[in-house]
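Researcher: Let's run the pair from yesterday's discussion. Sequence first, then tokens, for each.
Model: Starting with the first of the pair.
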Amino acid sequence: MNAISARRHLAPEQPDPDPARVLRDRGAVERAEWDDPADTNERSAKPWQVSGWRRSDPVAAMFTRKSPEFEAAERLRRDVALADGARRHEQLGTRISGTAPMTPTDVQIDAIARVRAACRCWTPSELDIASWCVVQQATVSSYAVRIRMRKETALARLRYALRALASHYANALDARELEDY
């Protein structure tokens, strides 16, 4: 057999991982039960219960929705979402009807600057847990397993990082108010 007639056996390509499985493995979703919004029967005393998977939010589990730490985490998430849109335009070189590549808007550029300023208020370890638990919304337990630390230590690190973020945003607001005078 020569090289041309010999059969080549290529290894099959690995299929893309199931997105739901990736989220479960990372700890970004957790089992939950909730009332079925499609159940509109007024005669029933209790609506049907739906069980499934919901996105976990470790910040909401730690703080109330009115706390400065929760509001700071939500503000960071919004800024990261805006900044991520700007990066996708750069990576893809998106064009509108054959014109020059799109450039990020002023809102996206401001969001990038706010995210960078927020990241400077943290140490590298706080930045790591904040990106894992706040931005990606993965659980603190999955972070503790990934880093090989106790869950209580990871919770304390996240709590400290969120307090530093809330303090950063409060100081930025105070500085902006002083500029107005």
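Model: Moving on to the second of the pair.
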Amino acid sequence: MLRPTLIVFARSPAIGVGKTRLARDIGRVEAWRVYRAMSARLLWAVRDPRWTVVLRLDGRRRDAAWPCLRVEPQGGGDLGARLTRGLRGHGRHGVAVVGTDAPEVNRARIAAGFRARNAIGPATDGGFWLLALSGKRARSVKLEGVRWSSAHTLSDTVRLLGTLTELETLSDIDDGKDLKAYWSRR
């Protein structure tokens, strides 16, 4: 059976690396702890025999916390260049990409993205938590001109890629307010 690939884009979990807005609100060490917990939870929640999971790290180091996953470097460039490389490199049988910021991502939501073939999962902050593309579309994708990490990320991506099935909207955890809101919903 030909399985699609789920790429998880992540930063190597290290104190002071990433989650800078969250760190401003709760401290660097606590932000690191939250990020490690979110990443571990996501990596556990998305494993499924229907697809292959690949972890693409930001290149700082290969972390021993993920020894049972296929780990690849993201490479250089902005997020668009790194996503383009990942999608093209794994687009043979369909591919989806997620980050580690949306704690409500799970197998059922990933499966919905793969079923739709060309789909995007909006995030409440104007970004997206999932981008799924068919093999053909992934092999030719080029994510240039997207205003990453902004309220325009989703709209720029849809404008660039055209018709995508919109999945349900999920929340990201980017700062202390987001973290507090997430804990209040649990």
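Researcher: Give me one sentence on the second I can quote.
Model: Residues 5-185 form a domain with the Spore Coat Polysaccharide Biosynthesis Protein SpsA; Chain A fold (CATH 3.90.550.10).
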